[in-house]
Design a protein that fits this description.
It catalyses: a UDP-3-O-[(3R)-3-hydroxyacyl]-N-acetyl-alpha-D-glucosamine + H2O = a UDP-3-O-[(3R)-3-hydroxyacyl]-alpha-D-glucosamine + acetate. Helix content is about 20%, strand content about 40%. The chain is an alpha+beta fold and about 300 residues long.
Length: about 300
């Protein structure tokens, strides 16, 4: 059998090391990132490594650590409480650029937000290039439907499901007062992600952001301290300051976050994700429910 249309049938890694710097959306702290190419004999998947002054604090694989969906980001936590926050845009970019093995080294807790989208990551990864590895690419094939939800049947319903399919497909619906109902539906491939999803930015209403920042300071929890117009589609009333970058940008960014959060499973999916008003917490609950049901999925490899 051949790999799904648009995807390679061999694993890959970066052709050379990638370095990039920026500030965290929530902590506001400066962070330097170094992504080191993986090898066929090394760890499978994406490994995160926290460093400080040249010393390794912790090293952990994405699919072997505690994963948490938070209100405004996704976090990984290793033993000893060492964390990496806001991983979703980077993980989505690595997955859809088909970088299956690499080590991500950071000197602070939070992955940089850059311009609020996945585009800078895609550009940086493509500039490095991809090297194919002599290994069959793995996918997670969904065998039966898994569902989660809150407020089912009410006006505030949030629900998600993943069901069997021969490709990685999504139907994501969201709504936002003043902008109406928004939807993105289609097959997720490296090409569709780069052209339709990657440029969409994190977004939020200015009137919500300021109280959240203040509350974060009062609770000692960093929230949106690094938010700027340069990294956010800021909403005032029924408009976006500076305009939208792509049509229906808000729902496309929900897709971006969903792709990154689903990447915590460790491989692309062969399944259809249906999502109504998804959030990081909901995304995490769905992937956790799928992986916990060992009869609901299997590993699939395609040799060519």
């Amino acid at each position: 059998m051949r790999a799904p249309a648009g995807w390679s049938h061999r694993e890959g890694t970066l052709a050379r090391e990638l370095t990039l710097s920026g500030h965290g959306l929530h902590t506001g702290r400066r962070v330097n990132v170094r992504i080191v190419p993986g090898t066929a004999s090394g760890p499978r998947g994406i490994v995160f490594r926290r460093v400080r002054h040249g010393r390794v604090l912790a090293e952990f694989e994405v699919d072997h650590v505690l994963r948490r969906g938070q209100p405004l980001c996704t976090m990984l936590e290793a033993g000893g409480g060492v964390r990496v926050r806001t991983v979703e845009h980077l993980l989505a970019s690595l997955l859809t650029c088909e970088i299956d093995r690499a080590t991500v080294e950071l000197d602070a807790e939070e992955v940089p937000i850059l311009d609020g989208s996945a585009q800078p990551w895609l550009d940086a990864i493509r500039a490095c290039g991809r090297t194919e590895l002599p290994l069959a690419k793995r996918f997670i094939r969904v065998l039966r439907t898994v569902k989660i939800g809150d407020g089912i049947g009410t006006r505030d319903e949030r629900s998600m499901s993943i069901e069997p399919a021969n490709a990685y497909e999504m139907n994501v619906r969201n709504d936002l007062k003043g902008f109406g109902a928004l939807c993105w539906e289609g097959a997720l491939t490296p090409t569709s992600f780069a052209g339709e999803i990657a440029p969409s930015r994190s977004y939020g209403r200015v009137k919500w952001a300021i109280p959240a920042i203040v509350a974060g300071y009062l609770r000692g929890m960093p929230i949106l301290r690094g938010a700027r117009l340069s990294c956010t589609a800021a909403i005032v009333g029924n408009r976006v300051i500076g305009g939208m970058r792509v049509p229906d940008e808000f729902v496309r960014h929900r897709v971006l976050d969903l792709v990154g959060d689903m990447a915590m499973a460790g491989a692309p999916l062969l399944g259809r994700v249906n999502a109504l008003r998804p959030s990081h917490e909901m995304n995490y609950r769905l992937i956790a429910a799928l992986l916990a049901d060992r009869d609901a999925w299997e590993w699939a490899e395609f040799a060519g």
